[in-house]
Design goal:
There is one protein chain. The chain has helices spanning about 10-20, 50-60, 70-75, 80-85, 100, 105-110, 125-135, 160-170, 240-260, 295-300, 305-315, 390-400, 420-424, and strands at about 1-5, 25-30, 40-45, 65-70, 90, 120-125, 140-145, 155, 180-185, 190-200, 205, 210, 215, 220-225, 230, 265-275, 280-285, 325-335, 360-365, 365-370, 375, 380-390. With about 425 residues, the protein is an alpha+beta fold. The protein is globular and about 60 Å long. Bound molecules: adenosine monophosphate (AMP) and glycine. Glycine binds near residues 150 and 227.
């Protein structure tokens, strides 16, 4: 079988890496991929928003399954285009992708189906939003309705900060049309966790739990990023919490999907805040989390191709999924300046020492080849991902590996997984 993966980040490297291990997969292509992906798959120079070129590629190369990594092509309707042409693709259609593409859609859905989430109001007038913020006071959360590359959420500690956020979204339009509407919501306090499921619209297959680290600095300080590291499993989701999440969040979500006739065949990522022992939904994403996919896929024992093909074809009820008992952690190495403007083109040293280490995989994100040399080309550059018999060992393995890697300006958090270790 031939598979095409769309995207070029750490998540896609992990997807490609795991797909390559399937005995049923002969060849994996990735559009556009990155330097690490090009070592194990054939990278093709087509952008994720060029649906015509992607479809042509799939037709002329007899691709059996397309897997969409990032949210933008899903929100743009790539699945609708591929399905219309009879192509097998894993991901929700345009309607399903609204769970991530419109925060208003997601909040209204949760309200309608009784899914616990922060209290909220939607505004398209700056003046009314400002009045509401003054009425509610701080802390308060402001969210641009549309896609904003993970940057559209402001957790404001003061009313002034919230109003500055409203101005930048609604008046300065820093996220363009994504800021036509805003969600203003109650600020929830607690511990976050990522809960992902695969669904074909009928059956739900739970993926291993994980926890992301959004802020740039240790101790969850500094501005939010795309994610500076993740680990799996997340002990905050113990067996009793898992059941509560399934009953109060996933079951009503599945009922809602069916009632609204939304064809969702892909990964539903539920970003949770656990407050006083009760889970609330902060956000939905309609794809694998990045960097959560990296540690999760390292723990996956089952054949990823079988899982994703069955998802695309509505056969998930026949599939069993199994996980390694070991823990896993991914530590992101980022460029100097990230999440603000960052430097590019720095040579990366020390990548070849992991070829024979079965416990460590260095997934590439923002890397490219320059005259045969691997250089930085993005904010998040590498995701050093390690397995260990427990989370402490996994952490030691990852950080020991990081000591061998270097590029100018490399920055990373030293406390990934400490929340789990401190619970032991
Ligand atoms: P989102 O893009 O919706 O995941 O939001 C990004 C981050 O903002 C989340 O991971 C949380 O850290 C934070 N956040 C979002 N909504 C809330 C909320 N209602 N209360 C507190 N923090 C929030
Ligand atoms: N790690 C959070 C996300 O993928 O959106």
């Amino acid at each position: 079988m031939k598979v095409l993966v769309i995207g070029g980040g750490g998540r896609e490297h992990a997807l490609v890496w795991k797909l390559c291990q399937s005995p049923r997969v002969d060849k994996v292509y990735c559009a556009p991929g990155n330097a690490g992906i090009s070592e194990i798959a054939e990278c093709i120079d087509i952008r994720g928003d060029d649906f015509d070129a992607l479809l042509d590629f799939v037709k002329y190369n007899w691709i059996d399954l397309t897997v969409v990594g990032p949210e933008a092509p899903l929100a743009g309707g790539i699945v609708d285009v591929f399905i219309k042409e009879g192509r097998s693709i894993c991901g929700p259609d345009r309607k399903g992708a609204q769970f991530e593409g419109s925060k208003k859609f997601a909040k209204d859905f949760m309200q309608k189906y009784g899914i616990p989430t922060a209290e909220y109001k939607i505004f398209s007038s700056f003046q009314q939003a400002e009045e509401y913020v003054r009425l509610k006071g701080a802390p308060i959360v402001i969210k641009a309705d549309g896609l904003a590359a993970g940057k559209g959420v402001i957790v404001a500690a003061t009313v002034d900060e919230a109003i500055d956020g409203l101005k930048s979204i609604m008046k300065d339009r820093v996220f363009g049309n994504a800021g036509d509407k805003v969600v203003v919501e109650e600020c929830l306090k607690g511990e976050e966790a990522s809960f992902m499921v695969l669904t074909d619209g009928e059956t739900v297959v739970e993926l291993a739990t994980s926890q992301d680290h959004k802020q740039i600095f240790d101790g969850d300080r500094g501005p939010n990023t795309g994610g500076m590291g993740a680990y799996s499993p997340a002990p905050i989701i113990d067996e009793s919490m898992r059941k509560t999440v399934m009953q109060t969040i996933i079951d009503p979500m599945m009922k809602g999907l069916q009632r609204e006739r939304i064809k969702f065949r892909g990964v539903m990522y539920v970003g949770l805040m656990i407050c006083h022992g009760k889970p609330y939904v902060l956000e939905y994403n309609c794809r694998f989390g990045d960097p959560e996919a990296q540690p999760i896929l390292m723990r996956l024992e089952s054949d990823l191709f079988e899982l994703l093909k069955a998802t695309a074809e509505g056969r998930l009820k026949d599939i069993n999924v199994s996980w390694k008992d070991e823990s896993s952690i991914c530590v992101v190495l980022a460029s100097k300046g990230y999440p603000g403007p960052y430097e590019k083109g720095e040579a990366i040293q020390g990548l070849d020492v992991f070829d024979n280490d079965k416990d460590v995989v260095v997934f590439h994100a923002g890397t490219s080849l320059n005259n045969g040399e691997i250089v930085t080309s993005g904010g998040r550059v590498l995701g050093v991902t390690a397995l260990g018999r427990d989370i402490r060992t996994a952490k030691d393995n990852a950080y020991r590996a990081i000591e061998k890697i270097h590029f100018n300006g490399m920055q990373y958090r030293k406390d990934i997984a400490d929340k789990a270790i401190n619970k032991q």
